[in-house]
Amino acid sequence: EGWILFSGPREGLEKSKKLFSELEEARRSGVTIENRDFRLAVDLVASGEGTGL
């Protein structure tokens, strides 16, 4: 079990929390999340082009 520590402005923290919640929900629903899928989701949220999955 791994942990991630987020720090920064509240808006960025909320986006990060939402993204990881959506990734976890997808994983529990049986979706296989490949490294490239994870990286794309993080990059899109970081660039402001997306809010999650």
Give me the secondary-structure topology.
Blueprint: H1 10-28, H2 35-47
Q: Describe it for me?
A:
The chain is mainly alpha-helical and 53 residues long. The protein is 60% helix and 0% strand. It has helices spanning 10-28, 35-47. The chain is globular, with a radius of gyration of 11 Å. The mean pLDDT is 88.
The structural class is mainly alpha
Q: How many strands?
A: 0
Number of discrete domains: 1
In terms of per-residue confidence, which ranges show pLDDT below 50 for 5 or more consecutive residues? none
Kindly provide the radius of gyration, computed on alpha-carbon positions and rounded to a whole number of angstroms.
11 Å
Describe the global form: globular
Beginning-to-end CA distance, first to last residue? 22 Å
Strand content: under 5%
State the major sheet: none
Order of helices and strands: HH
Averaged pLDDT, please? Answer: 88
What level of helicity do the residues show? Answer: 55-70%
Number of helices: 2
